[in-house]
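Summary for the funding panel

The consortium committed to producing paired sequence-structure records for every protein in the target list. Below we show the first two records in order, beginning with the earlier of the two.
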Amino acid sequence: SFWALRLVLTPSLAAMIDAGFCLAGAASWQIVSSLFRKPPAEQPAPPKGSPWGRRSAQPWSPLKAMSPPTHLRRADGVDGEKTPGLSGEATLCPEPADFSKVGAVGRELDRAKYVGLLRRLIAQSKYLQNNSRLGIVPEEKRAAKIVMEELAPYSKEQGGPLIIEELEYKQGRSNLKIVYPGTTSKTVAFVGSHLDVVPADPSTWDHDPFELTELDGKLYGRGTTDCLGHVALLTRFLCELGRAKPALKRTVVVCFIAGEEGDDFGLGVDEVVRCGKLEEVKNGPVYWVDSADSQPCCGTSGMLSWSLKCSGRLFHSGFPNKGINSIELAMEACNYIQTRFYEDFPPLPEEAAYQFAVGSNMKPTQIECAKGSLNQICPETTVSGDIRMSPFYEVEDVKDAIDRYVKELNESDLELLPTKGTWSKFVLDDEVTTQPTELRRGLVELKWQGDLQEFKLYAGIAVSLVSEGHKALVQACRETFSVVKPFSVNGSLPLVKMMQKQGFDIQLCGFGVMSVYHGVNEYCTFEDMRKAYEVVLRMVSLLETTTAS
């Protein structure tokens, strides 16, 4: 779920996706990377005897004699707008939210009803755990049943206004779509709150993770922050709409989703969108309610996981000239790939405008090598890591670039890699005798932990800062909390960029506690959820004010 924070994903990408903390606006399909880099500094002459010129101000290296500059696509500003930067002063209406626009809907979240509903949901969380790597498959239908029972008195079937539709694309894996009809084609939607949770180990918790515990103002239990607390919040909001029956101009749509916490495709919101079940919500803002800390989240990063297998030649360590040291090859290959990555995907001004802490980055995070004696040159080393991409680069460009770096390294650049001392070799001299099955030339093999489709599902997003949805969210938060601080995060969220590219005005918000996302002793507070309810009321009221009859 959330920021994957989403900091850990399944190997097959969600393997975020998650991201998901997906869509960074309309894509510009052919923008050369040089157009958005700083002008290069004046280059000094190459060292004596070097046949190569230089492309940067870094110390000279033969690695600079590589392929031509990469042609990259970069996502433009959302809807082509010039990036204005984050601001807590964004405003939809000159006057504060007018609650009369939502009629007799309750102005406060009913504590007893909210906690009672959340208690029933948490009691099912043991069966909502999701981790496909461990063979743990959730039964979201259990949570969907509880929500439908809560909403039943206000459903069309019982004479109420709510249109409730269970969308089940795989047995037991329910999504729920609930509609409160308005009088115009304009909409406001709340999507992204999911019915599955990450696994919890009861032995590491101070409280039973599968039972709601109230203590010192905190509500403990797996899913309280991520994301059953949000499910309960929006369900109670829908109950109030159903009870009060306000004459809204905008149709309110809520979609609770399945399969957000795992690498589940074709059964959650991706399938809901593919089947056209959310097409109408393109007529208004879509609030993805699965983040934290009660502030507008305006950007997330994408994520790609990779491993690099480096193969050499096993030999006695006393003769380094007759072996190929896979550990040294892995070190230099990573340096080669990272150097080219940072040249092709440099920091961008948009990242600063959205207040990302860091730009796009690639780094190793794990390394392992073949077991053997200390007096043997290691024949095989695997380095694994991830790439975090700002939403202003396209995922396919990143993957294509890394694929090309590795291809060119194996085909022509291996001899250019610096070696350690005089005797270390990545390509053996002709006089060295080898067996038919042994390598004479080091080999670098790239393996992606997921495919392009999965990586695109977790692509980063930069929300539109000029849309009515963003302005309503910021104003509602400011009126509720007095101070609002929009932010961006380098974690990932699944699916959101995909939806943005399909025309949805995705905005990110959430009211859980960031520090306990996916953590031990996860909790939310009723006070946070009480204020969250007020934010929702204010957003709907502000949007109603600006909607023509």
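The next record, for a separate protein in the list, is shown here:
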Amino acid sequence: MIFSSLSRASSEGCSHDQMANEAPEESERLPLLNRGVSPGFLVAVLQELVGMKREESNSGQLVHGNHTTDSKTDWQLFDRQKDPFSIKACTLHTGTSFVETCIKAGLTHDPVTGEAYFGPINTFVSYTWRGQGTTFAALVESVLSSFGDQSTSEEPESAKRFMFVDIMACAQNRRPRSGSGTCPNATDVGQFLKVLNSCTSTVFFGKPLTKPLALQRVWCLYEIMATAQLNKNFVFALGAEDRVELENMLIEQPRFMLTLFSDIDAEKAEATNPEDKEMIFEMIRDSVGFKALNKLVMDKMREWVRATSIQLVKDAEDEINANQESVGRERVLGVGALCFGLASAFRDLGEHGEAKVYFSKSLKLRRSAISSPHDPEIIECITGIGVVASDDHDYEATQSAYSEALSLAEALVQDIERAQAEAQSKADAEAAEQRGASTSPPPKEPRRSWRWMRLRSRSTVASHSFKKELEAASLGPKCSLAEAKEIQASCVLMLGQTSLNIGDLDTAQERFSHCLGLQEAHGALQSTIARTLVGLGQIAQRQGDFTTAREIFARSLAMREESLGRTHPDTARGRNNLAEVLLSLGDHQGAVESFQICLDIQEATLPAT
């Protein structure tokens, strides 16, 4: 056992519980570049921690003791008597690193497989010692999982991979040597750039996924910067829980890629040692600067999210293809939703070619799992393809996609209306049959309208039957008639916008007016009606009828302010539309006031660039 053997040797070889024995000079130590640890060694360490019921320990506790909780004070609280199995406690007798201490004790190979525990470093592991979710177990699981997912032809095989893990490769005791006066820890830490240069890749472990604590640490930012400057491969260590979280984010909030990591601020990063912080800050100032570093780290992280998201979808597709006979319908729909989310993310990022690919993948998967040809999820995919075509100014393809979507939406509305009519007819028949079977005369009641009688029978005798029939006939997931009509209106709106884009104002007018009629008929949200009014206002603006345009834009703006609030980005766009028309009408003061309000909203709501 690694920890028990080293702890015993430490107790026998060092009489002090806080201060280590003096370390040998650098010429007598194992070179730092040869202190890489194998995946097998990490697993062996983790298994021992589990056996000691310490699997929840983070790296800081592994170094300084399970009783410590804060990086600012843990070095002061270290005491072998409180935790004889910490890394510092196990290395007191050597004064060197955990790796060197293991080698000195003869703990160099896996006792079962014979695999070497240590070797030349080729992979740099960047992580933070403490924080939510940053247990050593999570670190090991995520890092080892990343090798199978992200390795390239330039990467070493897992069996030949030796990682730089600082808590193991660097001396954690800081007693100065009497001869040279140097500190073994400071000497090791000062070689990080040399270590990075010797590696083929940096594996970054960040928790939580959307806002990694490691990005708030000076050393981790420096390591990412150096990785980029040295043109090394960058890999984000993703565990099983992180995979699930990323899948959910792609499905539920695909626009997260637009804002992900946008709040990185290197100047606010922290370090346990103030001297380390100032040293790294000086290097940042002398190289790229803080603003450029923020963008560099953000780009690296987004690049990883993009590549990992693609891999997640590929893995899911491979799973379906390999298990076509047994894979369930829900899993197919789940992968379809994953493809749709990734397509939406690519569209937001301006990668229209990739967006079209994944909208098409989603459409194919959904059609294979959904029996109805006009399910809302199918319509959603087709409109997505149309949106991408519109972004690329391919208006012929746009018209084709939106027209197909509208045809399906109209069929969806008709089917739900027919299902409702049939269910109501059946409900009325059941109610009439139940009344006819009653032998006792009904009690005298005040005379009421026929409409009230229908409502009563539907809400009592036939309510369960009606709901059951409607649910069975529903062609989309929880799609009501109002929702189906909203889908229909949206398709008409998008066709109107396409006509406007190609300059066909008459057709655009017809389609926007049709859309407005549909929306007002089924009681659409004010914010959606406002979008249609904007289209009508733009037609009037292009025709030079600025008075009509002003009236329409003012109405649309009022709706947005009421439904979305005065500071919403869509409200700002509405202000801008009105300002442009006021300028055309010669109302310069009104235009300036509206432009200023628009600018104030944008400055308050949009992220800084």
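Regarding this second record: The longest strand covers residues 201-205. DSSP finds 27 helices and six strands in the chain.
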